[in-house]
Amino acid sequence: GAGVSQSPSNKVTEKGKDVELRCDPISGHTALYWYRQSLGQGLEFLIYFQGNSAPDKSGLPSDRFSAERTGGSVSTLTIQRTQQEDSAVYLCASSFTGTGNTGELFFGEGSRLTVL
Amino acid sequence: AQSVTQPDIHITVSEGASLELRCNYSYGATPYLFWYVQSPGQGLQLLLKYFSGDTLVQGIKGFEAEFKRSQSSFNLRKPSVHWSDAAEYFCAARNAGNNRKLIWGLGTSLAVNP
């Protein structure tokens, strides 16, 4: 597709269950970011992938959170043993980092997670 | 520590009125600066950015922003607001160079009265 695609758009789960959120970035974008946006809050950085480099995981709030990026493209954010405080919108963004890049991040529409 | 501050949590303006949204940054050196807009239920979209050069930058949808080094500010402006401008506005900054991690402000929610 032309833009960043995220799935599912909405996810309701029970406390203690694991969830997987998927992000399909724009083709050719080597950088991929995950952010969390809670109600009334700004964007909380979670993790950043850049090409084949080791990801910057400094924003992951606990070891229940993990992410991977397979083949330099699609990324999956996994939350294990979900808690109610994990309820938020999870945003994925990608950017082109080659010659002529503008630094712009292109965002998906997010995955809204509700933990009951 | 590096930070981005948006002092106004919520602003309401009348349609047709002018708008200024404030953004202040704290960085060791002049960062790259961005304004993004998030319409309800949507992802974020880049309005404009400042890397260097002309301190007044033009963006999409009739927005502009002025970089003022002396005030560590990058305020967003629009001469005449339209009802469709109601949204959340985020200011962000990052270091020049290869570290692409953005620091985000908490956002300003804009409401537009008819």
Architecture blueprint of SSEs:
The complex is a heterodimer of chains A (116) and B (114).
Chain A (H helix, E strand, L loop, with lengths): L4 E3 L2 E4 L5 E6 L6 E7 L5 E8 L14 E5 L5 E5 L8 E8 L10 E2 L3 E5 L1
Parallel strand pairs in A: 2-10
Antiparallel strand pairs in A: 1-3, 3-7, 4-5, 4-8, 6-7, 8-9, 8-10
Chain B lengths: L2 E3 L4 E5 L4 E3 L2 E3 L5 E7 L5 E7 L5 E3 L5 E5 L4 E6 L8 E8 L8 E2 L3 E6 L1
Parallel strand pairs in B: 2-12
Antiparallel strand pairs in B: 1-4, 3-9, 5-6, 5-10, 7-8, 8-9, 10-11, 10-12
Task: Give a brief outline of the structure.
The complex is a heterodimer of chains A (116) and B (114). Chain A is an all-beta fold.
Radius of gyration of chain B: 14 Å
Count of DSSP strands of chain B: 12
Strand content of chain A: over 45%
Overall radius of gyration of chain A: 14 Å
**What's the total helix number of chain A?**
0
What share of residues of chain A is helical? Answer: under 10%
Structural class of chain A: mainly beta
Mean pLDDT of chain A: 91
State the separation between the terminal residues of chain A, measured CA to CA. 33 Å
Oligomer: heterodimer
List the secondary-structure elements of chain A in sequence, H or E.
Answer: EEEEEEEEEE
Beginning-to-end CA distance, first to last residue of chain B: 41 Å
How does the overall form of chain B come out from the CA principal axes?
Answer: globular
What is the tally of helical segments of chain B? 0
Strand/helix succession of chain B = EEEEEEEEEEEE
- Unreliable stretches of chain A: none
Structural class of chain B: mainly beta
* Mean pLDDT over the full residue set of chain B: 92
Enumerate the spans of chain B where pLDDT stays under 50 for 5 or more consecutive residues: none
Major β-sheet of chain A, in short? 6 strands, mixed
Helicity range of chain B: under 10%
